[in-house]
Model the fold of this input.
Amino acid sequence: MSHFTTSTSLSAILRNCSSLLSSIPTARKVHAQILINGLFQNNTLQTDLVLAYCKCGLLGDARKMFVSMPDRNMHSWNIMISTHVKNCLYTDGLCIFSAFLQVGQRPDHYTFTPLFKACAQLGDKTLGLGLHSWVIKFGFVNYVVVGSALLEFYSKCKQAEDAKRVFGDLRFKDSVAWNSMISGLVRLGCNVDAVVCFRDMLKEGIVMDRMAIPSILSACGREGDVMKGKEIHGQVMKSVTFCDDVTIVNSLIDMYSRCGFLYNSENVFKNMVNANLVSWTTMISCYGVHGKGKESLVLFEEMKFRGFEPNSVTITTILASCSHSGLVDQGKKIFDSLGLVYNIEPCVEHYACMIDLLGRSGCVEEAFELVKNMKLAPTASTWGALLAACMTWRNVEIGEIAAHHLFKLEPKNTSNYIALCSIYESLATKERHKYYLIPHKVSSSSQVDTKESSQGEELRVKGMEVLERGLESFNQAEVGAGLQVFYNLGELRGTVEGLVGKYKNVGVKSIANALDMKAISSGGGMYGGGPGGIQRSGTPQIGGGSKAKEALWQRMNGCMDQLHSIVVAVWHLQRVLLKKRDPFTHVLLLDEVMQVWFM
Done:
């Protein structure tokens, strides 16, 4: 037998190796035959060996084979990059790509697909944008495999408009591209757009496949569009392939539950012939969301009786069901038996569910003890559940501890500041002044910095940070949260007047400088309309084309926008306080704030 015939046969065997464990001995035997027949220098066989080892999950052997190759071709590089990304070794995949560039190789359209996935998983938008520019430079924009990867990257990075633009620029859209766009829109919460995209796909003659159905059912569930969901259910029932697809049937159960049709979910579940653990977990979750905790427990026991061992997700689901129904004892029993009965180590989600369960039932101190005794480092979800419990039961001491941890973990999350303010606001007037004005020392067991400092001063600093950050980014929610802090401190009037005066002075100075330079050629009123929708009625035109003049006007323009943010935030806050009949409304009126600017 010639070397050509031998190498061709061995190559065919290697390429037929699958991901099954039974293929490992075959790959090793072929490797031995290659060495025996002196074919190790054959570049094609070397590449096939790398591919076979990657398919079998022998990443270490694949690396050794790859490193020993004297001449690594494009295919071998792509195999290594793709395999590392598939195994969630995203950083290693990017490092291999860096080495690929250093040896002078030029990427092809298959190289970019795993790279975009790695960037999406790592949240590296900068590198992803750079790779997109290379895709344009090398002319791979219209390759469907690259376009689909780009869609997934932008959707996972929360860039909806960029994802839509990439999809619109694709000349040829196959089912993979349509499915990527639909799933991306669902991931971004654009459920109506996802349904429209699905309809457009059908109009283009693309046949609905098993990959699109779960995504569109999820969109229907989130939007409560049960009619569209039933329509898709009817199409599923017409196809034997779809009826036997467990993923699709699980999506139907979830869709009906989200739309409020629990009875339909039960019927779909009962008619399943090949229900898996995900099916049972989904149905348990449906009962829990609808407040039927006892039914969740019954189904949980039936699942175990049928031979299904619960995993971590199932435990999270049943604990959440107990939490929604107030089944404290049952939830405790399941949580305490995780290691002994189910051989599952409690994770952060399990702790968060237990803290929520205890908090809802009023056992705030017990929930706090659970947080302190966690084997894992408490995360934002655990402290958030504890803070929510403190809001419900007006526990200011533990609420402060939870809030301080959240301030460190999520410094930009304004809802945490608002939650702490709500706890203060719920206290009686005398108690409220106690926490605002008297230096408050946090317990040493709280694992929080115990420096003696005024609670009021700390809130003041935090409130100003939130307020200034909101004004810089024109974020109305953060401006409102910051003003709420100063209202609770009894300093809202002075704070607002100071900020308005600051931006007024800067704006007036910019106008004066512009007038001195004779930059303004025409003008108009600054703002018109009510506080809920204040808009400029005229825009001065800058003459001469001077960058300095334009900068002056932009500076003043920014000040006016920041003033607008303050006024609207005060207006919304006043509406809330009017409903509460708070005496604050007699102290600070919206027209007073406006007069500070227009006087």
